[in-house]
Design goal:
The protein is of the alpha/beta class and 258 residues long. Helices cover 39% and strands 16% of the residues. The chain has one domain: Aldolase class I (TIM Barrel, Alpha-Beta Barrel). Bound molecules: phosphoenolpyruvate. Belongs to the triosephosphate isomerase family.
């Protein structure tokens, strides 16, 4: 049986509202040309200001492979004195289906802790969002050879309190910090697969054999050249892509080649 394919992109603080709508319209039309029996979960995570129109855009196009819209962050509280933040209820009201938590830029630029990511994970699951927790080691941690411990810590704290019934909504993205963005060096397929095996082992320790069903994606300088080799690795269930997916045609070409 063909492997289920998970593809997603985080648009970060790029693309305004109109650009996001154009991008999604093009991507929906292109992904509709992929074979109907291709088992695909496709998601796009635009900035907050584009969410409302993004949801409307994907709803207005009937595609064989509908695109799920996600948010880049979320305050764990339903409401309160948190100026500048966005609550789960606000995202729900817009029709957002997925929430990304703990992207490396949230952890390292905005100094979010594992405990804060955990509160967000629990809130996102409580509100039944597809919940994408990002984990990954820095270059310094890699050089100290403590990547496995870092990943296990991020998972054990980040997922503390998650119940077995919530697991179908959970997704994990392994994104080594040193591999992300313009200064990033893509992880080799062997390295990425070895770390994803560590993640899967930890998920099994946390949740038993159901933990093995949680999809784990690789992200960090994925491009059309390295995508095929990454994709066939046994512990990589999907690709989470930045720059190489921000042009709808390029994203489609990358997806259709796998
Ligand atoms: C990211 O920032 O999550 C990411 C994967 O970016 P890129 O593919 O551009 O390295």
């Amino acid at each position: 049986m063909a492997k289920k394919i998970y593809f997603g992109t985080n648009l970060k603080m790029y693309k305004g509202n109109a650009e996001v709508v154009d991008y999604l319209t093009q991507l929906s039309q292109l992904s509709d040309t992929l074979p109907a029996d291709k088992d695909l979960e496709l998601f796009v995570i635009p900035s907050f200001t584009a969410l409302s129109d993004a949801v409307a855009a994907v709803r207005s196009i009937s595609s064989k492979h509908p695109i799920m819209i996600g948010a880049q962050n979320m305050n764990p509280h339903d409401c309160g004195q948190f100026t500048g933040d966005i609550s789960p209820l606000m995202l729900k009201e817009l029709g957002v289906r997925l929430v990304m938590i703990g992207h490396s830029e949230r952890r390292h630029v905005f100094k979010e802790t594992d405990q804060e990511e955990n509160a967000k994970v629990l809130a996102a699951l409580k509100h039944q969002f597809v919940t994408l927790l990002c984990v990954g080691e820095t270059l310094e941690q890699k050089n100290y050879d403590i990547s496995d411990e870092i990943l296990r810590t991020q998972l054990k704290i980040g997922l503390h309190g998650v119940t077995p019934a919530q697991l179908p909504l959970l997704r994990i993205a392994y994104e080594p910090v040193w591999a992300i963005g313009t200064a990033g060096i893509p992880a080799s397929a062997d390295y990425a697969d070895a770390k994803q095996a560590v993640i899967k082992q930890c998920l099994i320790e946390l949740f038993g054999k159901e933990g093995n069903k949680i999809p784990v994606f690789y992200g960090g300088s994925v491009n059309p050249e390295n995508a095929p080799e990454l994709f066939v690795q046994p512990h990589i269930d999907g690709l989470f892509i930045g720059r190489s997916a921000w042009d709808a045609e390029k994203f489609y070409t990358l997806m259709s080649g796998l």
